[in-house]
Amino acid sequence: MTCLSLRLRIAISMALTATFATPVTADIPAWLDQHVGTDEGQIAPIVLQRARALYQDQVREAGITNPCYLAMDATRPSTSSSGAPNPRFYVICEAEESFRAVSSGYGSGRSLPQADFSNERECAENFSNAEGSNLTMGGAYLTAETRTSFKGYFSEAGERVPFHRTFLLFDGMGETDNARERAIGGHMAMFLRWQCRFSNPDSPNADADGFVPYGRLVNYTGGRSNGCTTWSEDVSRDIIDLVEGDPTTLYIYPESRDIAAVAEAVANGAALSGEGPYWNATCLGAIGTPRFWPRETLQPIINAWRQSLPQQPPLELPICP
Q1: Which partner for 298 in 37, 130, 131, 258 could form a disulfide, CB atoms 3.0-4.6 Å apart?
Q2: Domain-by-domain residue ranges, the chain?
Q3: pTM greater than the 0.85 cutoff
C-alpha cells in the first residue's frame, strides 16, 4: 500500500465546508432513491447528499478513482428493532448499483473529574475532535493506508493462535484535519483482553525474554470504540479490501454545525422534520440534546487530567498456567 499522492494530500489540506453548502440531490438515481430515508437500513437524505457531494468533489479535484464511497450516520442507535446491531454505516457503489448498510461503532468518550463527555452504549450524545477524547468527529475523510499489528494469542479449536488486527487510517479535512494525530481510522470490532503470558521464543512477536501475551478475544460489534469506526470481522475485511490501494471518501454525520442546529431546535421546541436539522428520533429521545466539544475547550481538560495521573509501573502479566 503506497501513501496518498501529492495531489491527493494537497486536496486533503483544503477545507471543504463550502462544498456541502448546497447538497447534491437532483441526480440521485432511482435505484438509490429507494434506500433513502430514516427507517432501519436506509440512509438519511442529508447524510447521502453530503457523502455524494464529498465523493464527487474528490473525484474531480483529487483524482479519486474508486467506484465506491462510504458514509456513516452516528445519530442512529446501536441496536435495531430485531435486537441485532443496527446498520448505520454505508458502502455505496453507484456504478454497479450497490448499496450496503452495516453496523458500526462510535466513540465512547470519557468521564473525567473536570468534565463528563462519555457516551452510553446505545446512543451517542457527545462529539469532539479533541485528541484523547475517544469521541467521534463528524465531517469529511479520505481512506489512507493500512497497518496490521500483532495483539497476542487466543484459544481457537483448542490451540493458541495469533491475533492480528488491520487498521485503516483516515485523513481528515476541516474540523477532522487532526485525524492522524488522533489515530482515527477503521478496524474490526474485536480486541484481545490480556490475561497472562507464555513462553514462545520462536514467535517473531516475542519480547526480549521470549514471552507473548495471551488473552480472551472480545467482540464489540455495533458498540462503542475509542473514537474509531469499527465493523464486524467480515465487513471489516470487505471494506479494507475495497479501499486498500484505491482510496475513497468517507462522510460521517453529524458535524459540529449540525449538533449546534439540533441543540438550538431542541431548546426552542422546534420539530426536527422537513427542511430542519436532522437527528435520529429514537436517539434524540434518549439523549435529550447532543453536545459538541470543540478541541479548544476539551483539549486542556484532557491534558490536565493526563498530567494528574500517577506514574504506573510497567505492566507485567502473570505466567499462563
Answers
A1: 130
A2: 6-143+232-308
A3: yes
pLDDT exceeds 80 at position 173: yes
Q: Rounded CA gap, 74 and 125, in Å?
A: 10
Cell matching residue 186: 477503521
- Tell me the three cell numbers of residue 33: 432513491
The amino acid at residue 193 is: R
- Grid cell 465512547 — which residue? 108
CA distance 106 to 75: 10
Distances (CA, A) of 41 to 100, 101, 207, 270: 8, 6, 45, 26
Q: Strand pairing partners for 140? A: 251
Length of the chain equals 321
Provide the 8-state DSSP code for 277: -
Report pLDDT for 272.
75
State whether residue 258 is helix, strand or coil: helix
Cβ within 8 Å of residue 206, ≥6 positions away: 200, 212
Q: How is residue 191 written as a grid cell?
A: 480486541
Helix (H), strand (E) counts: the chain: 7, 14
Distance (Å, rounded) from C-alpha 72 to C-alpha 191? 22
Show Cβ contacts of residue 3 under 8 Å, excluding neighbours closer than 6 positions. Answer: 144, 145
Residue pointed to by grid coordinates 428493532: 81
Instruction: Tell me the average pLDDT across 71-76.
Output: 97
Residue 41 contacts residue 87 (beta carbons within 8 Å): yes
